[in-house]
Every structure is written in structure tokens, then in C-alpha cells.
Amino acid sequence: MEELSRLCCLAVEDVYGGFLAQIFQHLIQQGRLSVNQLAQRCRLPLRQVKAGIAALIQLRLIFHYTTPDGLSTYQANVHSAYNLIRAGRIVELVARRYGPAAAKIMEHLAILGYATADELEAHVCEDNVLTTSKDSAELTNGHHEEGVLLGGANPEVRTSFRTALKHLLDDRFISSVRDAHFQSEFDARQDVERHLQHLGMLPSAKGKKIQSDIDHRVDVELESRLDGTVSSASIMQDFEQRDSNENMTYSQVYLSTIPMLCIDYSNLLAAIRNERVASTAYKLFGQPAAQVARAACSQVDVDSGPFKIQSATSAPIQRLNVSQIRSSMAEEATQETLNEEDAENGWLGEYALNGYADPQVNGAQHYSQIDQHLAVLAEGPFSFLSQEPGGGQWLLHRSRLSNFLRDGELMRFMGESLSGPALRILRMLMDKGKLDEKSLQEIGLLGAKELRQCLAQLQLMGYLELQEVPREPQRQPNRTIFLWFYDAERVRKVVLGRLYKTMARLFQRLHLERERLASTLSKVERTDVQGSEEEMLSQAELQVLFKWRQKEAWFMTEINRLDESVVILRDL
Amino acid sequence: MVPPKVAASPTPGPLQRGGRNRIAEALYAWCQKHYEVGHVFGQDELLSAGIIPNQDLSILLSSVTHLVDQSLFRLHDRIGGTIGWELVDQEKAKNYAGLTRDERIVLFIVDAAGTSGIWTKIIKFRSSLHGRVLDRVYKSLEAKGLIKPMKHVKNPGRKMYILAGLEPSEEASGGAWFSEGRLDIGLVDTISKVVEHYVSTQSWQVVEPEDEEDEPPLPGQKRKASVAGLDSPGDERVKAVKDNEGQHKAKGPKHAPQKSYRPFDAGWRSYPTLRDITNHIMKINVTPTILPQNAIKQLLEVMVYDDRLFKMHRSPNDDEIPDDPVSNIVTMYRSFKTPNDLLERHQLEKRKVSSHESVRKAALRQQELEDIGRGGTSEVPCMMCPVFEICGDGGPVNAVTCKYFDQWYVKLAEADKEAGVGQYNPKGKEKNQHKDRQETNQVVNGNSGPRVDVDLEPS
After folding, report:
1. Which GO terms describe its cellular component (chain A) (predicted)?
2. Residue B216 — pLDDT band, cuts 50, 70, 90?
């Protein structure tokens, strides 16, 4: 946890600068604080701290909670702070799937934290006007700003914004924020409990059975409060209403409850997961099987929320829809061909419509072939797939899928830092449970010396644990059985800690490198230089700038790769 | 065990004349004829032979004593306080001839331990002889070629002896994979490679690049492979049928210059089983060591743990014995890698020890890239850092003082050059070209997130 909180601080600092990071850091390290306490700890004037807190709340980086007697306290929102690292990737994913217009929306939403659809539209349109005007360089400064203030006179931009937004909403890249999202899980739960008690819906008696019943009810209510689904239809309707009724004032807008939109990261997680499965399948069985595997996995969605509430809706086994696999493969195929043709101007609307037109031509496959591939996959090591007996439907076991990925990831991770038969030992222990050294030697065909070295190394790294079972109460070592065992859950935590720490180091180092080049970079950041670096900078400076960008890319690549591991190990 | 009653004496009359020895010999001959070596006789049984005249106990006693002296009989106490005599093989008895008493005792103890051998400490305890005496005895027995020292796998430090004519039992020697009490890693490696290759040829379907002919899938690419092809002629036919069935399918993923492979359709039953693999190993005669089925089974388990093979199950054919009688299934083995991959790997290993530095370097780099695959955490210095645990803010090692990053930059720049990206190009406006610097084709977003300046006017 300590590593994670440090990493979050660094991410906040990297994105939003030192001031907010300082407040955030105190909150994340010291837990729940009131404004006064916070100002004291930060050694900052109260007014500044308040401004900072307001900004942090807007960015969804902290939770706030006000008790019934009026005392407000704040807590760091580790989850969404961590998501800052992912913001770039989800924008990229959207750009790839839906084209640049949609990516722009995501970008703005990420900057805003959360926003109503109107605000979002205003921002995106404004930005569009700015960029287009800059590109065409026709208008002088004064003119176009008026246009923006008039509400984005450009109807073309607006319609493209609305279609893109509709797609994003439909595919759950954007969901809504509710009040409960601004409270920590504990507070939200307490609120729900109080609310239900107030309504007299909770039994007053105590006992284990009743307690579980209460928990269940609270879960249900909490889930409904945290439910971020928002229908694109209602948002679109709002737009139309507003268009027809331009004169509606701000207060009127706020009177009706307008959904606040925010980024939903679950699609990113699912995409990373599916990619992982597909690449494993590709390595083993080649491209067609990989496509089927990806399409099959994409039918299982991920819950990215910070609070994992066990609900009845996420069944452990998902029935796969073969025709959907087929259509999504067809879509993928068309998208690929289109992407090859013009990667630049790709726009989603057309693909999705055209994709269905003639799937046969575009490389979609017959049902029987998909069945075949699924069968080959299921027979191979992809044990999360199975078929109902008698050639029925295909099933996908969620927990097996995530365990499959988790084990693979852990093995990969451990294999990187270990040598020799260490992985063999680990798999043996995974398979057999607890073993003593003698049986490890026997089963694993290992020499005693080699084995001992390996075990010591594994224990040192924290991947293996040793259990002592004394045969006598005196606990003499020679009358004690020593059993080695592997606990995936513990190892997962160890590995996550290392991942966080590594990411934190990378951020720190990136920061350090930036400091070193501060003079050049500050010049690059000047508004008159931006965009025309070629003319304004000297050759040497350009060289430095290029080297720096390269370095930054290296760091970000590695951070993203590490984040991928985090997705597999933590979020699935 | 009640011995069969012998009604009439099988031996002819002239025993009387022969004196003790001849009675004893006759008695021994009778025993040998009717009983196995190692059978323990009671007095009644010996008398029932009808060799001892008049069932005279004194004659019996003297002849038995004679036999014991000759080591042809061995004395035993039996339950209930009586005495029994164990029949000893003549050959064995010869060993005892001309030994001192001590030597005899020791040899007897070692002999009794059989193939499992015996620890000197136990000999000492059983014989109650002095340590020095024992040392002398061991030396003389070894010189006479009667016993030899041996090593036990589980307790390599113990000094143990075994009869010179015996091989240590499997438990003591550790089985086929051990030679002289130590694990023969070279043997394990070689055989596992052979096994992997064999399994691999059997678990992938060959796709001919031109047309999907019914050709046997294993032309002599390697010696082993060709033999494997002869292994089960029935397989080819089935394969051919399968080939025809799957003709409409896309071609295999791995396009090697000469052939490519694709997985068999689901439900394929001819992945090699333990029996097939053992037979194959025997047939190709790769090692003089005899590898029994259970040794191969042990090796296969290890290979599964090494993530080279994986198991599949099916119901047994008619002539097969199920591996797991409870659920009545046979285990089949399948490899992760195609023969092409294996070949490639093999060549890579070769190149890694090549004499040319550039070749070696390239091979190492290739290996590195393969290992990375997706998610290249191993490239980050921190992941391999020897002082990662003590790295921390304000500590002796931290992100600022770290010296590994500079090396990392150099390495990355080199890798970029190799991949042909990341060269500074003053004219090209495409600054993004460095983004796909890895073969992994992972597109990087150069930006971790939006950069926002929050307005904070301390007004």
C-alpha cells in the first residue's frame, strides 16, 4: 500500500503539479483529515488549501464526506489517482476504435474530471474552433472567440461530437458519476445504512444471519447508488431539448438532474485482458484462433469500480454467443482493412455500418469454424472455455479466466528474475500443495544442491514460504518437517508492490531527467515556440528536444507495460 | 506352508555307507530339489525327507551342523523358540568358504540387506564388533571381491556396503536418472529434448504449403523424426482423413520455409501417451541406459512442470490400460511448441555460443526480445536491480543516485538503432516515429495523461 500511495502522489504531481500533489500526499499518507488539519499539516494558508481541495474534488482525486453535524473530512481517492496513469491509454484506445473526434472527447473529459454533456460539448467545440482557426490561420484573434462564446456556431462539429459521444456512451467508455462516487466506500456504506435505518427497512435484531441479510440489503442499495449507467438516448434527448429551447438559463439546466459524465476505464481493462488472451492463443495456435479467443473474451465485461460489490448479475459462468463472436470478428477484419487504407481519417460510424454488409468477404468465418477454433482452444491449455455436454453452448468461466491470466503473469514475472529450475519448483508446489525437500527432489528430478539454492532464492524473493511442522513438542530442528508452499495470493501482493515501486521509480527518474533539461524545456513550453519548434530552436536544442522526447517515450512505454501487469494482477 | 508329504524316499539306499558327509549332501540335494533357495526348514520338515535313517536326531544334528559349517544352511531362530535352517545357494555358500568368523558375520549382514545395501553403522550395531576390526574386515572383503561400497541417493554422506555381485536397488540408486548416486543431468536434458521433439511432431498437424497432400507428415527432417513416423502407421491414415476434412480451413500460423503446422482439430485422439513415448525412446536407442516406463513418466511430469508439455485426457483404447483406473482415462501429452519452433530454439542456443561476437550478441538480443514478449518489465532496471529492496527516498540508493538508468538509456538507444527507428531526423516532422521502437509493436502513447494547470489565484 505504501508503494501504491507513493506512486499515486507521483502520478498526481506529474500530471497536476506540485501544489495539488502536496495536499494529495498528506491526505493519502495520513488518511482522513479536515480542512483545518490539512492546512496545518501542509503549512499552507487555509484559503489556498480550500482552493486546492476544490480542485481535487473536481478532478475526483479525493473523497469528501460531511457528517450530519456538519464536519467535513477528506480522503484520498487512490483508485482514480492511479487511473491518471491510464488516461493516455484509454484516449489512445478510443482513438483507435472511434477515430480522433471521440478521442478528443475523452481527452477533455479526462482533463475536466467530470462534466455534464453540455459543458463537454462547449469545451470540445471551443477546442475545435481554436485548432481549426489556428490551422487555417485566417482569423485574427478577436473574431473567432466571439463565435465560441455564441455556443459553437459550427453545427458540423456539434453533430460529429454528438455521434461520437453517443458511441462512447453506448459502449460504456463514458458513464456517469453519482453522489456516492465522491465518498469513500466506508462512508457510502454508512450513509446507506443510516438511510435504510431511517426508513425502518433494517431489522433491529442482531445475529449472524440477520447481519448477512443486512449486508446484502446494503449491498443492493449501495450498488444502485453507485450504478453509473447512463443511456445515450436520454443525453441525446437533453441536447435536443436544449437546442429547441435556447433560452434556458443555467439554473434551469441544473434544476433537472443532469447526469455528470466521467470516463469509465473498464473497457481499457477488458481490452488489455483480451489482448493478453489473444496473444497467448496466437503464440500457441496462430492468428485465427487468437481472433476467436479475443472475440470470445470480449463478451465478458470487467467491473472497473473501486468497490467490488458481489452482485448477482456477474455470474461466474458466461454463455458465449457464437454469432456475436462472428460479427465482432467481421467488424475487426473490416476495421483492420480500413485502417490499412486510411489510418488517418478513420471514423467509426462508417465502419460499424459497413462491417455487417458482407462479412464473408472480409474474412469472417463460418459458425462451424468458430466452433472448431473454440474447441481447439478449450482442448489446449485454455481451460476457462468449456462446452456444455452434447454440443451445446460454449461457456466461459470468469474466475478461471482471471486465474489463468494471473498465473501466467505471475509466472512470467517470476521467471524474469529467477534462473534454473525455479519455475519448475513453483509449478510443482502449485500442483501438489505443500512438499518437503526430499519429495521435491524426487518429483522434480533435481539435485539437492541445486534445489536448495533455488529454494533459498525463491524464499528470499518472497515467492515461497516455509512451514515448520514439529513432530515433537520440543521443536528440535532434526525432528521437524519443513514444508514448502506457494501462495498465489501472497505472491500477487508481493509482485504488485514491486510493480508499484518500479513505476514510482520511473516517474521519479522521469522527473529528474526533466529537471536536468529544464532550461531547454522551458523554452519549448513558451507559447510562441510551441508548434514552430523547427524555426525557433537551434539545431542543438532540437537535438536535445528530440532526445528528451525519446526518453520520455521510453519511460511511458515501460510505465504502461507495468500498468498492464497491474491490470492483470489487480483489476480483473 | 506345509510341505508336501513325501511318501517314499526319493533317494536310493546307499546312504548308510557314506558317513555324515554323504547324508548331509543328500539332505542338501533333497532340499534343493524340493524347495526354493531361502526356504527355512524346521526339524520336522527335514526329518520328513526320509533321508535321516530311523529319524535319528543325532544323525540329523551332525549332518545339519556340517551343512551349517559349509554355509549351505543358515541358522535362524523361529517364533516359538525353535530353530530353523535356511537353504542357501551353493554359489553363495562358496563366498563364505575360507573366511574368518568376523568376516563371515559381516558378509552375512551385508548379504541379508540385499539390493538396498547397508549402512556401516548398522553393521556395527548388528555385529557388535569393534570399529577397527570392522575396518579390517571391510578391507579384506573388498579385496576378496565380495562386497563393494555404494552410495545411497537420499543419504549421500553415508558409507554403505552392498554385495559385490548386486546392483543397488532403484530406491537406493534413485532410478534410471541417477548414475553413481548422482542425478545425471545431462541424460535428463538429452532425453527430455528427444521427448519434446517427438511429442511435438505428434501434436501438430503439418500443412504442406502447396497442397494438403496425404503425405506422411514426417519426412526425414531429423533422424528421430523419421523413426517417429514409422512408429504408428495407423496414425498417418487418420491424419490424412483429418487433413481432408480440414481443408477449407485457413493455413497454419507458422510459415516456415518448408512446412508449417497447425493444431489438430478438437477430439484428436492420437497425441502420444506414456506408452508411445517409452516405446519411441527404446526404439531410437538414444542412450545405453535402460529407461523403464516409470522413469519416463517421471520425466514427463517434470516436463509438464517445466511448461514444455501439457496433459490431455481421453478414454482408453481397447488395448490400453488406463493411467487412472478410477476415472478410466489415459493421459496424452502435447507440446506447446511446433517442431519448427524447437529447431529455431536449438539454432538460437547454438548461435549463443558461437565464436563470432556479433552473432552471439544478436542471438542474445533475440532471446531477450522473445522473453519479453508483451509486457517487458525485465527491461526496466528496477526489475533486475540488486538493491531494489533498499531503494527509497532519502536512502543510500534512490532514483537520483541510481546508476543503472544511464546504462539503460545506452541499451535502449542501441536497440532503437538496431530496429532502425529513433534516429534523429532534422527534416522529418514525425517525432512520433520512436514510439514503436520495439518489435512488440506496442503503440505507446507518449503522454501519461492530460496536463492541466489548475488556476489557483491566491487572491
Report:
1. RNA polymerase III complex
2. very low
Q: How far is residue B134's CA from residue B107's CA, in Å, rounded to a whole number?
A: 11
CB contact under 8 A, B262 and A285: yes
CATH number of this structure's domain B16-89: 1.10.10.10
pTM for the model stands at 0.75
To the nearest whole angstrom, how far is the Cα of A307 from the nearest Cα of chain B?
A: 24
- For B98-174, the fitting CATH number among 1.10.10.10, 1.10.3720.10, 1.10.260.40, 3.55.50.30 is 1.10.10.10
Contacts with A382 (C-beta within 8 Å, 6 or more apart), sequence order:
A277, A280, A281, A293, A404
Residues A445 and A536 in one domain: no
Which residue carries 453519482 as its cell?
Answer: A178
Distance between CA atoms of residues A451 and B404, nearest Å: 31
pLDDT at residue B228 in the model: 36
Q: How many domains does chain A have?
A: 6
Nearest CA in chain B to A47: B458
C-alpha–C-alpha distance, residues A55 and A62, integer Å:
9
CA distances from A103 to A92, A173, A232, B335 (A): 7, 11, 17, 43
pLDDT reading at A340 higher than 70: no
Q: How far apart are CA B286 and CA B411, in angstroms?
A: 43
**Could you please report the per-residue DSSP string of A523-560?**
HHTSTTTTT-HHHHS-HHHHHHHHHHHHHHHHHHHHHH
Minimal C-alpha gap between B118 and chain A (Å): 20
Residue A523 sits in which domain range?
Answer: 493-571
pLDDT at B386: 82
Sorting pLDDT into bands at 50, 70 and 90, what band is A315? low
Do residues A284 and A259 both lie within one domain? no
CA atoms of B46 and A448, how far apart (whole Å): 52
Residue-wise pLDDT tens digits, A500-545:
998 998 999 998 988 888 888 888 777 777 777 777 778 888 888 8
Which backbone phi and psi does B398 adopt, to 5 degrees? Answer: -155, 180
**Of chain B residues 131-190, which have a CB less than 8 A from chain A?**
154, 156, 177, 182-183, 185, 188
Query: Is there a domain that residue A81 lies in?
Result: no
Nearest CA in chain A to B450: A111
What pLDDT was estimated at residue A50? 92
pLDDT at B423: 56
Is A312 part of any domain? no
- pLDDT of amino acid A305: 62
Q: In which residue ranges of chain B is CATH 1.10.10.10 found?
A: 16-89, 98-174
